[in-house]
Design goal:
RNA-binding; Gyrase A, domain 2; alpha/beta; disordered N terminus; Rossmann fold
Length: 664
RNA sequence: GCGCCCGUAGCUCAGUUGGAUAGAGCGUCUGACUACGAAUCAGAAGGCCGCAGGUUCGAGCCCUGCCGGGCGCACCA
């Protein structure tokens, strides 16, 4: 079932962005001012890191080590002098030398607490780009989506969320290759093997993407075995590229129908798009011709007259003079790279031309627009970004380099530098998962410890199958714990749990790490998983629900309206003071984690951070009862503490695309 | 052959861009539900960080070589 889900982002936590990022920023400047009077230090030398243990301090400087080398003296001497120079720093309680020369800072907790909990909306994060384009998903519209596509979409969607959190304007594009060879294969199958008319296809109601998944595999095998059929395939390709033919009508029908299936699959994970640029529109509007003329003019490509590439337009590779990449084939047709160069130019607004658009679908209150080669009634525009992320797996690194080289050759140095290939490793299948989906392996594949997902071979775990299984399992768990809920509510919750499981699973691995997909791991709801994070947030939510029921006051009202001076940190027992502090400091690191994630294009750290935050939260309220606390001041203090943690967690979960139900 | 990536606990993986005692989850073993929700929490065991050199105050991280595995190098995308 497809459940329309609400975006979590708009409601609760618009205001609260308590962050260590800003504290560090201010401290760094002050430290630099003081130290540079005596030593040759710059802002970059002053890196405030966390200490390995809370007892050692809150923030650490290791600059004594490199400085000692430069000044030919002892790190401890430097550190000791630095402590003198930094004495009385605002917001810092004391400074100590530790180890071989670490300078450890202990923040003034009361003032950090007071200040941070008052200045709620000062994050210190600022946008740097005019507009950022994130291209992801990009599934050939000829078959069902599989787990490999899910990794791509989860990474791309999370990147977009992080960039938006930072304050950037983000446009999410999903490129649709509706005239490519993969669609051609399925059209060939429908016409030549299945002998289906368009009218018959339109009557097919269920799982068209699954039907095409099988058909595509059959066609691939058929074409491998029947060389004579390849002429017919080539003919279909040309007709589809040219448009205005029965074959093109099939391609249009297939690609749109499958595209809708993909969008439905992705919406199950709360993933959506702004615009769907189609290859057919690029061809119709002759984007390539413009790019072609410019590439020729700039001498970026040339007509080859000898060797294997005779009769083709080719590009020499910058890093390897020996090699050349064919851009236009000897029969005059365009390779994928050629189209991609034109597309990349358009993304930066360098083509001097835009697509036409029309609405294709809506998710929530957002419209998804699709490109058109013909004028429409809608005055909307896309593209024209100042920075572009292409989320594409690592196997296409070489082609991405060629695209960027094309931009550089045209003199667009800036845009070339701002073209970022977000590469990631593929998803492969374990032998066990293969036996679960009952596929037969070639003898060669049987020797391997894992097998690459392949749409052509039909080797893959379909995205909807995985999500279905997760929902089924989640529904059973929800039913067990909340038997009184209505059926629709249970299903909605199950879908949210399934989504969180998929998303966390796809994000927890570093992008360079190959995922060998295993059902047992993906279906796990305990430990470091999406549902664990969700569960933590749900329990916090219910604490505040109960609080509101009793007191008629929301957590936010308590947090923002009840004065901080009511409670003095020194009244806490040392153990609780420590646990409180650890939770607050850790929670305040979120913004830095987001910036790091963007800088390194690595979300595993953000996922792990969120998980660790959950562990700390669970531990905290396990040790200190909140609503049952008799001392009202202490109770208020604890409520505010977990409210803060709750908000930070909600923000982190929103970035990971994980939704928080009321119960689960 | 050339290029890129990976090798860390029994398994799956982190490791903050060279910093303090290498961390999680799963699995195994102990313990905690008359509940602010046990999808949880507390604890234990488990490591020549593939191997060998080098760089330096300091290396899982950087350099070189080797071993093992993967992916690219199409007139496919």
């Amino acid at each position: 079932m497809r459940v329309k889900v609400q975006l979590v982002s708009q409601i609760n936590f618009v205001i609260i962005r308590i962050t260590m990022y800003q504290t560090k920023k201010i401290l760094r400047e002050k430290i630099e001012d003081r130290l540079k009077l005596e030593w040759p230090v710059t802002a970059e030398d002053i890196e405030l890191t966390s200490t390995p243990d809370e007892k050692l301090g809150d923030l650490a400087l290791s600059l004594a080590f490199p400085l000692a080398r430069k000044l030919r003296t002892n790190p401890r001497t430097i550190a000791a002098r630095a402590v003198e120079l930094l004495s009385g720093l605002e917001g810092v309680e004391r400074i100590e030398v530790a180890g071989g020369g670490y300078i450890n800072l202990f923040l003034d907790r009361q003032s950090f607490f007071d200040q941070k909990f008052k200045n709620l909306d000062r994050s210190g994060l600022e946008p740097e780009e005019k507009k950022i384009i994130v291209e992801h998903t990009n599934i050939n519209p000829n078959k069902a989506a599989h787990v490999g596509h899910l990794r791509n979409a989860c990474l791309g969607d999370t990147l977009a969320r992080c960039l938006r959190y930072k304050g950037e304007q983000v446009e999410v594009q999903n490129y649709i290759d509706d005239t490519g060879v993969q669609v051609v294969d399925v059209v060939f199958g429908l016409i030549e093997l299945e002998k289906k008319t368009l009218a018959e296809l339109e009557k097919m109601t269920d799982k068209f993407d699954y039907y095409c998944w099988d058909l595509y595999t059959r066609v691939s095998r058929y074409l491998a075995d029947h060389e004579s059929a390849r002429n017919r395939k080539a003919e279909i390709l040309k007709k589809i590229e040219h448009g205005q033919s029965p074959e093109a009508d099939y391609a249009y029908f297939v690609s749109r129908r499958i595209l809708r299936a993909h969008l439905a699959t992705m919406s199950r994970l709360d993933i959506t798009y702004d615009v769907l640029p189609c290859e057919s529109s690029i061809l119709r509007l002759k984007f390539w011709e413009k790019a072609f003329a410019r590439l020729k003019e700039a001498g970026a490509i040339y007509y080859s007259t000898e060797g294997e590439t005779a009769g083709c337009w080719v590009m020499k590779l910058e890093d390897n003079e020996e090699r050349e990449k064919i851009i236009v084939r000897s029969d005059g047709t365009l390779t994928y790279v050629g189209k991609d160069i034109a597309y990349q130019l358009w993304k930066f607004g360098l083509l001097g031309q835009d697509f036409y658009y029309e609405p294709f679908a809506t998710t929530g209150d957002r419209t998804i627009w699709i490109s058109s080669g013909e004028p429409t009634d809608y005055d909307v525009h896309f593209g024209g970004g100042s920075q572009v992320y292409n989320v594409i797996d690592v196997r296409q690194s070489y082609l991405q380099k060629v695209v960027v080289q094309g931009l550089r050759a045209l003199g667009y140095k800036q845009e070339a530098a701002k073209s970022i290939h977000f590469s990631y490793e593929m998803v492969a299948l374990s032998p066990r998962s293969l036996s679960e989906i009952k596929v037969e392996l070639s003898d060669e594949d049987k020797e391997r410890t894992f097998v690459e997902v392949s749409g052509r071979k039909g080797l893959g775990v379909k995205a909807d199958d995985l999500i279905d299984r997760l929902e089924e399992k989640a529904l059973a768990e929800v039913d067990k714990r909340n038997p009184d809920l209505k059926e629709a509510a249970k299903k909605l919750i199950a879908s949210q749990i399934a989504g969180s499981a998929v998303r966390y699973f796809m994000l927890k691995y570093a992008r360079n790490s190959l995922i060998v997909f295993d059902f047992d791991e993906a279906l796990n709801f305990e430990g470091e998983t999406g549902p664990y994070l969700q569960y933590t947030a749900v329990r916090l939510k219910s604490i505040f629900r109960k609080f509101e029921e009793k007191k008629g006051m929301t957590g936010q009202e308590l947090f923002t309206k009840v004065a901080d001076s009511q409670f003095d940190l020194s009244q806490l027992k040392p153990e609780e003071a420590r646990d409180f502090w650890e939770l607050v400091v850790y929670g305040s690191l979120l913004d830095e984690e987001v910036l790091r994630a963007i800088a390194t294009l690595e979300f595993a750290g953000l996922a792990k951070f969120t998980f660790n935050l959950c562990q700390k939260i669970n531990g905290y309220y396990h040790r200190y009862s909140v609503l049952a606390e008799q001392n009202e001041k202490l109770k208020t203090f604890r409520l505010k503490t977990i409210y803060f943690a709750h908000q930070r967690l909600n923000q982190a979960l929103d970035l990971l695309g994980i939704q928080v139900p009321d119960k689960m």
